[in-house]
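Re-run requested by the PI after the first attempt was lost when the workstation crashed. Everything re-entered from the original request form. Ligand of interest: pyridoxal-5'-phosphate.
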Amino acid sequence: MNKHAAIPLLTPLLPDQQALAPYLAQLDHNRHYSNFGPLNNALESRIADIFAEHGAYPLHVTTTSSATLGLELVLSSLDLPPGTKVIVPALTFVASLTAIIRAGYTPVIADIDPDSWLLTPEIATEAAVQTGARAVLAVAAFGQPQDTKRWSHFQQQSGIRVLIDAAGAFGSQWVEAPDIPVVYSMHATKSLAAGEGGLVVSGDNVVNANVRQLSNFGINLDSNAGFPVGHLSFVGSNAKLSEYHAAVAHASLDQWDTQAQLRQKIYRDYRQALEAACGEQLQWQAGSTLAAPTIFCLRMTADARDRLEAICKQRHIATRRWYQPLLHQHAAKVAPIIKQPTPVAEAVASGLIGLPFSPFLSREDITRVVEATCLATANLTLAHQPQ
Ligand SMILES: Cc1ncc(COP(=O)(O)O)c(C=O)c1O
């Protein structure tokens, strides 16, 4: 084992040129490179078929150029008054926040559940009572799925609109309620990787049709809309998925099952090795086993986390404090927000650490990370580490 080789945090796995070739050949043949081309439309159908196997409702799929734009356009399509308060958990990626602000709404930063590390309908109810929020952007943080049925119940009871940011949860997050739109990312680091791209999945064709139109500048393409085709009917953006990205997504989908199994196996072995070595010092996000994990995140005491970071740095093992600083700390610089008390998010974040994870992680890599974690949890300082 080379004890000094760098272990990167993430190594993307995208289809190679051989896997891409049939789709690029279609591109050459079609000479259609964007604007809802045949590869894009076939991709939407393939994804809709996958979701249909997992739900009782027919679902619509609309691609976007990224999950961030997908979130922004779903929020815009809700057509809520400017400045409407939208609840979002403190522990998430900044894109959840920027999508709300760019859609013209005001973020309400809320706390998370201590076990699942997710925003729940109960927390959102309390935040809505306190602030008068009219929408919720719940997040499948770290790929851990949200319960769409429970959110649908919340939406029906409260009249508060809900959408789910499931950027990193393709394959784990299903859409089991037709009235809850869910947005996925196809960024290079995700399990269904197109390089860049997003998917909006919902049972509400109005939401999907609006997102599609907003992704094409807001131009009306529907001859039945009672409005001239080619005229602008909303202020949209250019958020279309190019045919090149659709080609990569098709090839990635062809390999998804194999890749997901590999990711699951590495995740399981890695976690077992850490639990066997220093398990009682580590806390994991509660929830279901992920279909295709893309990151490896756990919680320890703040002191142990600091020690682990220092040890990993010295040993060329990359780490990341995922989703930190918390959203309100990011927002402080960029836009007015409303902040609810977030003691749980702060406590979780104080010891949260992302360790290297990818389909290329070897047994030796895992052994090196486990050794470093054991040293950190055994309270050894850098000066006292065995070499
Ligand atoms: C929770 C969350 N939301 C949104 C995004 C943004 O996705 P994209 O890069 O496709 O815009 C990410 C990216 O990792 C994310 O983790």
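Saved to the shared folder this time. The first helix runs from residue 17 to 30.
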